[in-house]
Amino acid sequence: MSKLFPALYDIAMKPLEKTRFEKVRANLVRKAQGRVLEIGFGTGANFPYYRDVERVDAIEPNPEMSKHAAKRIKKAHVPIYTYEAEAEELPFEKNSFDTIVATLVFCTIPYPIKALEEIKRASKPGGKVLFFEHVKVDQEAIGKTQEVLTPVWKKLCDGCHLDRDTLELVKRSGLKVEKVTSYYGGLFLTIECRNPE
Fold first, then answer.
1. Exposure string (b/e) for 146-173, b if CB count within 10 Å is 16 or more?
2. Domain assignment of residue 133, given as a range
3. Which SUPFAM superfamilies does the annotation name (predicted)?
């Protein structure tokens, strides 16, 4: 499945990326400044949107996903350096990044609390942390459906949890949530934070 999912990811996302997703990604990623870390860059969908940054260090644990990002890396407007690494164990020093970006990735991270701890550690004090994630919907019927579908969905979609409450995890992490914007009835959120440490 690890080889099949990356090949299908761009195909499945293409209709969404050409609609509102593309605008959401672009608007969020363009808020990045300084030295940037991207968590789980996947096929590199965010790479075209980085502009006024020094460089982007980007991690991705799935080497098959990374292969699909090569063209976007070449076309990027800023230097992009990629690493095969997991969010729960970032290969960077403390206080390294001005901005950390994670889009549509927290659903797949096996230990999201550990990943958030690592994000706080790697972020500079006052650094931005920007998320765009799908989350468990705050409507009982839909939320229950997400819970029921998640075990099968995880197997098909590289570990994706349909029912993860990422906003609540971010709040509990100690990151200071400054702005939350909801899309598609609360199924997708952008979460803009600061690292207070």
1. beeebeebeeebbbbbbbbbbbebbeeb
2. 4-194
3. S-adenosyl-L-methionine-dependent methyltransferases
